[in-house]
Amino acid sequence: MTINWFPGHMHKAQKDIRALLPEVDLVIEVLDARLPYSSQNPLLAKIRGHKPTIQLLNKADLADAEVTGQWLQAFAQVNQARAYAVSQSEPAVMKQIPDWCRAMFPEREVNKKPIQVLIMGVPNAGKSTVINVIAERGIATTGDEAAVTKRQQRIKLPKNVILHDTPGVLWPRFDNQYSAHRLAIAGSIKSSVVDMADLAHFLTAFLVAHYPEAIHERFQISLDDQFDASDEMAVYELMEEMAKARHFVKAGNQADMERFYRQLITEFRQGQLGRISLETPAMQTAEVAEVEQMLAEKAAKKEARKARFKNKQR
Fold first, then answer.
1. Which of 88, 113, 129, 212 is in the most buried spot, having the most CB atoms within 10 Å?
2. How far is CA 59 from CA 94, 185, 223, in A?
3. What are the pLDDT digits (tens) for 196-214?
4. DSSP-assigned beta bridge partners for residue 249
5. What does the DSSP assignment read for 258-292?
6. 18 and 159 share a domain?
7. Predicted structure pTM score
């Protein structure tokens, strides 16, 4: 299933962000630590340009700690932004965010001018939770569904920092459908526009390939070393076994797959499958090259069609 989701309020939010950017000193981009590549919005990156940026790899307590370390190292090598791993389970670390902002503008210690900060990110990356922790009060609405925040807010934080909250924004077309599936699994795309069976299959195949121990520990199912995660029928049969292990069974001892699909995705989002990262820097490198090749081939075919059309008109 091809996934795309860009409702009207996101288009408006993108325009509002573009209008607000000249007024702010710094951008905070909240990423999902389990998918730091896929949760980087290329549209927002283009809009913000060279504006000083802090990237927060949020929900780090749900991600594979070793992989998060790889991401922080990768960001340090290629990004002008400063990247930090944060999570709701360590509020003391989150509360350092105003200090991190001030450290980027030491001259403000003298002139006492407030630091204007724009916080942005994809839906459900945990932006509202970050705001509530550092503001030490319930200002932003939180939830497990995408697009909870739908309007801008202006929030005064400690350390003379003014935070401008914006709705979560995606982009109009996902050229990388791996990223689209990861975003949907993480809850950044509204569940009503995706196929839960497709997401559950994607996630199960990923677990087989990268975290087979999670399947063993959560479902008491041991996988053969030769299990092929690319074999769609084998993955589906495994999901049936996983469903029955949970006693998700209908009449005739048939696995209740619809219930299982929803439950598997929910357990991933809540960290009940263990600390899992859905992508690595090496995966990003490979997928960027794959997408570039795909787009180049599409462009070549388009040009070839144009040429054929022109020749017919002669």
1. 129
2. 11, 14, 29
3. 999 999 999 999 999 999 9
4. 255
5. HHHHHHHHHHHHTTTT-S--S--HHHHHHHHHHHH
6. yes
7. 0.90
